[in-house]
Amino acid sequence: MPNYLVGMEAAWLVRDVESVEDAIGVAISEAGRRLNDAEMDYVEVDVGGTPCPACGEPFESAFVAAETALVGLTLEMEVFDAESEEHAARIAKSEVGGALRDVPLSVVQTVPVGDGEDEETT
User: E strand or H helix at 49, and its extent?
Assistant: First the structure.
């Protein structure tokens, strides 16, 4: 069965911040802490990118108003031996969603990364 790299996005709410940089730092830190507490240190967390409506270039997905921020995070994890792309997406969303309760989460990309049968086990 093949392995898949599953990319997800999460909407993270941060309160009591004054700048976009602070909001991004807090969001990544909080998400990382919750994933590490669930022993899911294999999930990569980063700030998402949103295309500029004028030029199309991506910029960091964070918006601050009234000292409250909405930060778009990207989360990636590899799912081993899934039956299909849909199965891998369900597994990833279930695992990450369990650690990040009450955080809106959606799968944005599922890419085959290798055949699990060809991998050497240690």
Answer: strand 49-51
| Cα-trace Rg, the chain | 16
How many angstroms separate the CA atoms of 69 and 72, rounded? 10
Non-local (6+) Cβ contacts of 84 within 8 A are: none
- pLDDT, one tens digit per residue, over 38-92 is 999 999 999 999 888 889 888 899 999 999 999 999 999 999 999 999 999 999 9
CA neighbours closer than 13 Å in the CB half-sphere of residue 13 = 7
Q: Which residues of 98-111 are buried (b: 16+ CB within 10 A; e: fewer)?
A: ebbeebebebeebe
